[in-house]
């Protein structure tokens, strides 16, 4: 085998390997209407991620004193309020990351935050005021997620 044909063979192998690695990265199947509900679910999760970031940053603003006056300072609040605020400051941001990535654990953490907020509002109204509006909104978001997840699961065969 000559040096020229050996170089051509090596170059052809390099081109083929490069093409194969790019094909592995790219989305080989174009988006179709077959997975419309999955796309809607991912969009919903991304919107919830942005909302979770906003809520988490708001709770951190309460902890650090960026929100509220001197009378509303974190250290002057009851221990139950402080505990709940720190809990939501952390878990909302963790949920936001998982939701944005559309991972199963992100949805589980987000569902935990939704249920936790509803329980705190209903069972412990002294902490955040017991707003039925918040409970209703959380129930509406949970229902929307469950409906989208169900529809997305129906469009994929088992």
Automatic annotation (TrEMBL):
Give me the segments passing through the membrane. Answer: 41-61, 81-101, 108-128, 134-153
Alphabetically sorted, this entry's keywords are: Membrane, Transmembrane, Transmembrane helix
Highest taxon above the source species? Bacteria
Entries under Pfam families matching the protein: DUF6163
InterPro entries cross-referenced by the UniProt entry? DUF6163
Claim: Transferase is one of the keywords in the record: no
Name of the protein in question: Putative membrane protein
| Organism listed in the record | Rhodopseudomonas rhenobacensis
């Amino acid at each position: 085998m000559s040096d020229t044909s050996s170089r051509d063979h090596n170059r052809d192998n390099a081109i083929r390997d490069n093409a194969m690695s790019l094909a592995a990265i790219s989305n080989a199947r174009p988006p179709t209407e077959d997975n419309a509900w999955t796309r809607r679910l991912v969009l919903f999760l991304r919107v919830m991620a942005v909302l979770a970031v906003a809520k988490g940053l708001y709770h951190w603003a309460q902890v650090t004193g960026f929100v509220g006056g001197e009378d509303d300072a974190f250290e002057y609040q009851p221990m139950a309020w402080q505990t709940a605020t720190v809990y939501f400051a952390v878990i909302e941001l963790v949920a936001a990351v998982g939701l944005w990535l559309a991972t199963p654990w992100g949805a589980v953490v987000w569902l935990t935050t939704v249920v936790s907020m509803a329980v705190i509002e209903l069972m412990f109204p002294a902490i955040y005021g017991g707003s039925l509006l918040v409970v209703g909104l959380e129930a509406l978001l949970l229902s929307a997620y469950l409906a989208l997840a169900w529809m997305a699961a129906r469009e994929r065969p088992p």
